[in-house]
Specification:
The chain is an alpha/beta fold. The longest helix is centred in the C-terminal third of the chain and has 17 residues. Strands 1-2-4-5-6-7-8-9 form an 8-stranded parallel β-barrel, surrounded by 5 helices.
Amino acid sequence: MRDIKLLDCTLRDGGYLNDWEFGHSKIINIYERLIASGVEMIEIGFLDDRRPYDVNRTIFPDTASIRESFKSTTKRPPVMVGMIDYGTCSIDNLEDRKDSILDGIRVIFKKHLMDDAMAFVKQIKDKGYIVTAQLVAVSEYTDEDIAKISKLVNEVRPMAVSMVDTYGLLYPDTMLDLYKKLDAAVDKDIYIGFHAHNNLQLGYANAMAFIRHETDRNIIVDGTLYGMGKSAGNDPIELVAPFLNENCGKNYNVAPMLEVIEESIKEIYIRSPWGYRTQFYLSAENECHPN
C-alpha cells in the first residue's frame, strides 16, 4: 500500500503575505495545532542567510536560529522541514542533522539551475537530512527537462521530487500528464510531491486529481491553512485532510486546523487578503510570475 504524506507549508508560503512576521506566539500556536491535527510534515519557514534572525519571523539565516525559535516546544511532528531557494543560503549555515532541530530541507530551483541545485541537494543529504527537490514552474518542463531532472534525481536520491505549480496555471489533465512522465522516469522508492497555487481556482481540484491518480507511488501533497500563500494562495489543507480521511484511509483531526484558522490566520487575512483576483488569473494565463 502506498504512503501518502500531508505537508503543511503555512509558515513558509504564507509568509509571503506578511513578510514572515507571524509573531512568535502565533508561530508556536500554528505549529502545535498542526501537530495536533496529525499532519506528517510541517514546513516551518525559509532558510535565507540574507535575512537577520527575528524571533517573530519564520525566515531564518541558519539552522541554529530555527532551534532557538522552537526551543520552548516539547511536541514534534513526524517530519519538520525548512526550505531553501537555491542560492540564498550557504551550506555552511546548515548544522549537521544530528545537531539540528530540522529533520529535512526542501530545495526549490528553476530548471536552468537544476545541475547545480541537485549538487547542493546532495551536499545537504550528506549532512544527514531528508531532502526534497522542488521543481519551480514545473509547467515549463519539456519532455527533455523531465528526462534530465529524473536522471539527476535517480543519481542523488533525495526523499522526493516535487512538482510546483508556481504560476497556478495547471489544469488537472496537464498536471497529471507531467506527473505520469515523472512517475515513469523516477525510481519507484522516491516520493513524488505536488504543490498547488490557486490562480485559476484549481488548487484543490489539482490536489484531488494528484491524490486520486492510480499508482503505487508514494506521494507528498502540500497545503496551507485557509489556503494562505503567495498571490492567489494554495489549496486549503483543512479541505485536503478530510478528503484524504474519506478516500485514502487517513485519520487527520481537522478541528485543530479550524481552531488555529480562527485564532491566528483570519486576522492576517483581514490585513493582507489572499485568494482569487483578476490579476492572478491574467498572470497565469500569460504564463508569468504573479510578481
